[in-house]
Amino acid sequence: MTSQTPGTEKLAATSRVDLERDPRAIVGAREFAAPRALVFSAWTDPKHLSQWWGPHGFTTTTYSFDFRRGGVWRFVMHGPDGRDYQNRITFEEIVPPERIVYRHGGGDDVEPVQFRQTVIFEDLGAGTRITWRGEFPSAAERDRLAETLARLGDYVAATAQA
Amino acid sequence: MQYLTDRLFNRIAKLSLDTAFAALSDPTRRAILARLALGETSVTELAKPFAMSLPAVSKHLKVLERAGLIARGREAQWRPCRIEPRALKNIDDWLNHYRCFFDESFDRLDAYLQKVQAQGHDKARDQSRIEERSNDQPNARNGKARRDKPRRS
Lengths: 162, 153
Hints:
The complex is a heterodimer of chains A (162) and B (153).
Chain A: E1 16-17, E2 26-32, H1 36-41, H2 46-49, E3 59-65, E4 72-78, E5 84-95, E6 99-104, E7 115-123, E8 128-135, H3 142-161
Antiparallel strand pairs in A: 1-2, 2-8, 3-4, 4-5, 5-6, 6-7, 7-8
Chain B: H1 2-11, H2 17-24, H3 27-36, H4 43-47, H5 54-66, E1 70-72, E2 81-83, H6 85-119, H7 123-141
């Protein structure tokens, strides 16, 4: 970060999604003007999560929440169109306040496409950077699949322009 | 993020995303697609880099075709294989929705964090103080942490 006038610090407002530098997965980053421990704590309790999880217009109802390694967050997302979407997240790794790794999906009743999500919390002094990385699907080949998908995405983009 | 898949199922009927992902889960089939991304070609040509029989390659092509990822020409004997851009577009759309999920969730998280900080007495902030203290302890014992120069921002 560059030097800033006190009180006017403005952190990057949009996520950066970079397929080029890490073609094995989908990666994004975002900076928040809040201390790392606070940003991390927003992920640790369904009371906080329900305030921000999901795209605009979505609300979240939690059935159960077990924030520890191997623990499961079972919840439903209510879409703005009135539809409900069942979700299951299994926490694979929790290192406060630095890192959360979870698996999304799994089970017949939820998301058929599984993926593993890594969320890194980085202390920037004046704020916090979250770097997220999605690898999917659940198969052992997920890295190379994501790579193929990234390449195919480029191909589609090129085709669309042609 | 089941909604991502649901959106795709609803908006672009017929192609089942998990069928497409299943088709893509095999390294040979991904290699075939990568080759086809360069342009259409014959089964014989596709089989060349692989140590497998033509029928084995044909089997993979059938899986890709069923998933809607490739199309095969009816013309002539060599039945050229070509990639199906629309199906790939569907996958690309899914990936965009996936990115969108984080973009919009993080918009909301940003707003929430601002609100929590403005409130000051919010529980999340208490929580953060507790975590900050517990994080400081190991460093404090080493005689570091607090005496360090303030981090440059």
